Amino acid sequence: MVKTSFRRLSKKKLLLTFWTILVLSYLFYAEYLIYKLKSNSWPSMSCKNEETCTRILLVADPQIIGNLNEPIRILTPFTIFDSDRYLKITYYYAFHFIKPHVVVFLGDLMDEAHIASNDHFQGYVRRVYSIFLRPFSEYQHVKHIWLPGDNDIGGEDTDVTPKKLQRFERAFSQPSLINHQNITFFKINRLADIIPVYKKEREFFDTSRIFIGLSHVPLMFRPSVFTEKVINKMMPHVLFTAHEHKSMIISTDALLRKDNHITPIIPDHDEIYEYSLGIQNMYEILIPTCSYRMGTNRIGYGYAIIENNELSFTILWSPSRFKRLALYLPLVVLPLLVFFLFKCFGCARNFMKKIYGMRI
Quick check: 351 pLDDT over 60? Predict the structure, then answer.
């Protein structure tokens, strides 16, 4: 009898030890190692001359989770924690991989800013800073460019208002034209039909300055009168846009602008795309979302190098988070549930024995 009990106890300890090692190993893999392994597979690009080179990190649609609209309200603190942590980790690896001179945030920084009270909005801004700025405060030389998206100021589900626009601009204050080396970045706000004031004549084939247009909503991908107005006035060599939660490169003849050639960018191939700017074609590059909450597994950051008039571009794809979370169910939740059910069953059986003994 004692030997049998000892064997049962030993089997339970062995099973518990095995399960603990399995869970801890998976935790290490899912919460740390997978990000390191993924970053090791990213395609490498380098500058020919550091003095004439600009490395650009492009961040699209992080849409940090708000306080109000989560489907299961009781899980909101957990979903906020996990989503913010995912953005922190993936951005950390992308930032240190690229070592950027310029970081561009292409809008939809926050998911519920367009419907938020001022207090909630300020809380969301603090979270954006804590994810993307505060851990990198020693990199004072890096320029940050901030654009609003429809979830920041309205434009789709709600209207754009001067109050929302001013609130965003106060939080992320900077001019609409930003220069770095031989590059002029200019902000385009299609949601409010705003383009920067620029009085000089632009010549597309003049590459002494490279003009880069930045917009949350795509322009060439969604042609309109406003798109024509932007292109005719600013003559961008390349546009970086977001909003669609997917990545592609659109090219067209800069003068004729009749036919668009679309090149989808997918995670299956880590390609580097290289173009000479100001020769014939104008380009629009859509950047995928960097958040795993946007209903797609194609998540990542844009990486561009501009040297003289040469552009190199790729996507740094991030690992899927939902797949990792789904494995926690059979690995952690179900065993714990079975354990508690057996405990409850054992307690109930002991209780019934006591009741039965009292009756006798």
Answer: no
Helix, strand, or coil here: 199? coil
- pTM for the whole structure: 0.90
Residue 315 carries which DSSP code?
A: E
Reported as a pLDDT band with limits 50, 70 and 90, residue 342 is low
Relative to beta strand 300-307, strand 210-215 is unpaired
Q: Find the mean pLDDT for residues 13-32.
A: 85
- The DSSP secondary-structure symbol of 65 reads -
> For residue 185, with 0-12 CB atoms within 10 Å meaning exposed, 13-18 middle and 19 or more buried, which class applies?
buried
Structure-token pair, residue 147: 């654009």
Sign of the alpha-carbon dihedral angle for 196, 201, 203, 207: negative
DSSP letters along 179-198, please?
EETTEEEEEEBTTTTB----
Mean pLDDT of all residues in the chain?
A: 89
Rounded to 10 deg, the angle between the 118-132 and 76-98 helix axes is 40
**Contacts (Cβ under 8 Å, ≥6 apart) of 293:** 63, 65, 79, 83
Model confidence band, residue 188 (pLDDT cutoffs 50, 70, 90): very high
321, 86 in Cβ contact below 8 A?
yes
Tell me the C-alpha distance between 254 and 185, whole Å: 18
What secondary structure letter does DSSP report for 204?
Answer: T
- 194, 234 Cβ separation under 8 angstroms: no
Do 219 and 231 contact (CB within 8 A), yes or no? yes
Q: What average pLDDT does the segment 6-33 reach?
A: 79
| pLDDT score recorded for residue 6 | 46
325-338: pLDDT as tens digits: 888 777 766 666 66
Is residue 157 scored above 70 in pLDDT?
yes
> If we measure between CA atoms, which residue out of 202, 220, 200 comes closest to residue 211?
202
**Residue for token digits 């208002």?**
161
- Which residues are paired to 179 by β-bridges? 184
- Burial (CB < 10 A; 0-12, 13-18, 19+), residue 106, is buried
Give exposure, 142-170, as e/b (b: 16+ Cβ within 10 Å).
Answer: bbbbbbbbbbbbbbeeeebeeebbebbee
